[in-house]
Specification:
It is a single chain. The termini are close together. Helix 7 packs across helix 8. This protein has a nine-stranded mixed β-sheet, with helices on both faces. A two-stranded antiparallel sheet has the order 10-11. By secondary structure, it is of the alpha/beta class.
Length: about 425
């Protein structure tokens, strides 16, 4: 009851802020704090306690590091860090990128691996990780399970789970920011599908990322529309919990604008996230609402709509790479270089190297038809990307799996009710 009262009071305070503020009164810090409270994210993030388990040359010009870092309740997140094989001899620091997966995706997904190789060759340091319930955070060490969707709970538990998803991303930003070769002022976060929703929230409350990119989503809409009625435990209920913001999309992207540059990139024919109803007029209207809230049209957000394209991880394609080069100054490639680089159809690449794709998305209009930049990315073996050996994973399983997080979350609810 006490926890509910605290949340209700926070919501009323935030609603009052929204109703009374003019452009001059727009209080980003107050809103960020309210959103963090909504998702049970403390003002101080957990200590990272990063563990390096091994490193190896995963592709020509690219090294991979297998690491663990800490998230909520001292749980551990398995991650791969991709970086250029050779660091700059002049000591210049590199940009960093965090890849946030869609439903069923993890660090073993083709697009997480491909993005790691692609952007490491561009001169960035890239973090990919297993979201809750997938990969090495799954009780059977499986991928594509969508285990977090199977949790049954109320809106409070959904807010806690969203807080975990956001914290995982923020901790990955911390991981990059603490690396000596990374420029902490040139870090980006980019998410696909569910990852786009998580990045929209993380980018609103975390002031550190220089850029945020949302593909296969980012088209946040209004009351009782698509996002309110999407997957309840990770999207629908958490998005509804932000009703106190008033115009939720405009407020979220106003906070993004105050943090840095933002790109939303979608296929015109993407029916997975309702893009057929959110084309140019939708985004232009949203830009105008963000501008009114900020008092300026500068740095609202950019958007790209790709023709003849459905649901795809478009951050591996030329238009997004070009946008990131302009924002982060990718050390190894100029804009002209990117224009001249070859690309490859992902369906052909996955067949050539026997790379597994989600069957629901292995179609021409979806992921298989993606034109990913570069034509010489090698294939990979799934277990090359495992952080822990089977024996070590079994010994540390309870630090990793979604079941342990759920037990901790429910225990926290009992404490809050007292």
């Amino acid at each position: 009851m006490l926890a509910f009262c605290r949340f209700a009071l926070s919501a009323m305070i935030a609603l009052t802020i929204y109703e009374q503020r003019t452009v001059a009164q727009f209080s980003a810090d107050a809103l960020r704090s309210q959103i963090r409270d909504t998702f049970f994210i403390g003002e101080r993030l957990p200590e990272l306690h990063t563990e390096l388990h091994r490193h190896f040359r995963i592709a020509p010009g690219v090294r991979a590091e297998c690491v663990l870092y800490t998230t909520q309740y001292d749980m551990r997140v398995p991650a791969i860090v991709y970086r250029p094989d050779t660091l700059p001899s002049d000591g210049k620091k590199l940009p960093g990128l965090v890849v946030v997966n869609g439903h069923g995706g993890d660090k073993f997904s083709w697009y997480a691996y491909y993005a790691g190789i692609l952007y490491a060759r561009a001169g960035a340091v890239v973090v990919t990780f297993d979201p809750t319930g997938e990969g090495e955070r799954n009780p059977q060490r499986k991928s594509g399970t969508r285990a977090h969707d199977q949790i049954k709970g109320d809106a409070t538990l959904a807010r806690r789970q969203a807080g975990l998803l956001i914290t995982d991303v923020m901790q990955a930003v911390s991981l990059l920011a603490q690396r000596p070769e990374v420029d902490a002022n040139r870090i980006g976060i980019m998410g696909y599908s569910l990852g786009s929703f998580i990045v929209s929230l993380a980018g609103a409350i975390d002031r550190r990322p220089r850029v945020s990119v949302m593909v296969g989503g980012g088209n946040l809409d209004g009351p009782d529309e698509y996002w309110d009625n999407s997957k309840p435990m990770c999207q629908g209920l958490p998005y509804r919990a932000l009703d106190y913001l008033g115009d939720r999309p405009a407020t979220v992207y106003a906070l993004h604008a105050l943090r840095g540059a933002t790109l939303i990139c979608n296929g015109r024919d993407d029916t997975v996230v309702n893009m057929h109803r959110t084309h140019e007029p939708f985004f232009e209207d949203l830009q105008a609402r963000v501008a009114r809230l900020l008092g300026s049209s500068a740095n609202t957000f950019d958007f790209q709509i790709i023709d003849r394209c459905s649901h795809r991880p478009l951050f591996v394609t030329r238009p997004v790479v070009q946008w990131l080069e302009r924002q982060l100054d990718l050390p190894n490639w100029t804009s002209q270089d990117i224009d001249n680089l070859p690309d490859t159809r992902v369906g052909d690449w996955s067949t050539r190297f026997d790379i597994e794709m989600d069957k629901g998305y292995a179609t021409e209009d979806r992921e298989a038809g993606t034109r990913a930049l570069l034509d010489d990315v090698p294939g990979f073996n799934r277990w090359d990307l495992a952080v822990l050996t089977e024996t070590a994973w079994r010994q540390r399983k309870q630090e990793l799996i979604i079941d342990s997080w759920l037990a901790n979350a429910r225990a926290s609810e009992l404490v809050d009710l007292k």
